[in-house]
Design brief:
The chain is an all-alpha fold. The protein has two domains: 101 residues, no CATH class; 115 residues, Four Helix Bundle (Hemerythrin (Met), subunit A), CATH 1.20.120.660. It has ten helices and no strands. Helix 1 packs parallel to helix 9 and helix 3 runs antiparallel to helix 7. The radius of gyration is 22 Å and the shape is elongated. It starts with a helix and ends in a 6-residue tail after the last helix. Keywords: Signal.
């Protein structure tokens, strides 16, 4: 338990400013799953008008996913999704329900594969945190700065992401050697302070660092006994 808590905190220190890559991938994956369902409904519809209605909903879902896909960085998923988009558009242009269903079936296959690709991409990166360290930080910032979400949704997403961190930090406070836990928590806290002083922070990054600093401060208050 002690080693797992410390390992998590160590990884968290290095991944502190890469969270939005995962965040964007999560958003994109959720949207792709929704697009997949809308496409399936279009295939199952018996009337061409209803089929096109769901096809248009799927197209809109893809349009809403573009910024998140760019931020995520999973090119294979993006390419497959755009192939699916092309098929969906063709399905809306035909007056034949059989031709439409043919395009929709191709779209469904590409979209389903796109979803599998982004899930594999997420799984691979989450299991290999060193992969994130190899990503060019400037490239990450360029991609991630394009993601725009309403403040309320954004804050809720960030809070949900930080739940695991808060739980692991609590466990570390209770089970890990006091000085080791404090040193790691202090490092994270100081990183957040430095980041919050940076000019031109995005709203997402500012809130993320603020909340992380707040959570870590609570842990440091409990670890004050280690100073002596």
């Amino acid at each position: 338990m002690k080693k797992s808590c410390l390992a998590f905190l160590l990884c968290y220190t290095f991944l502190l400013f890469s969270y939005k890559n995962y965040n964007a991938c999560d958003f994109a994956g959720t949207n792709i799953a929704s697009v997949q369902q809308q496409t399936l409904k279009a295939i199952e519809a018996e009337e061409l008008g209803i089929s096109k209605f769901f096809a248009y909903k799927a197209i809109n879902g893809i349009e809403k996913s573009k910024e998140q896909l760019e931020a995520c960085g999973c090119d294979s998923s993006k390419e497959l999704l755009y192939l699916g988009l092309g098929d969906l558009i063709m399905a809306t242009k035909t007056d034949s329900i059989n031709t439409s269903k043919s395009f929709l079936t191709k779209a469904f296959e590409n979209i389903s594969q796109s979803l599998r690709e982004i899930e594999k991409y997420n799984s691979r990166n989450s299991k290999n945190p060193d992969n994130l360290l190899a990503i060019n930080s400037e490239n990450i910032e360029t991609k991630l700065s394009s993601v725009t979400i309403t403040n309320v949704v954004l804050q809720k997403k960030i809070d949900s992401i930080l739940v695991t961190y808060e739980e692991s930090l609590d466990k570390a406070v209770q089970t890990v050697n006091c000085k080791e836990a404090r040193a790691m928590a202090l490092k994270i806290y100081q990183e957040c302070e430095k980041e919050l002083l940076m000019p031109n922070l995005t709203e997402a990054k500012r809130y993320y660092n603020y909340r992380t600093k707040e959570i870590t401060k609570n842990a440091l208050d409990q670890l004050v006994r280690c100073e002596n």
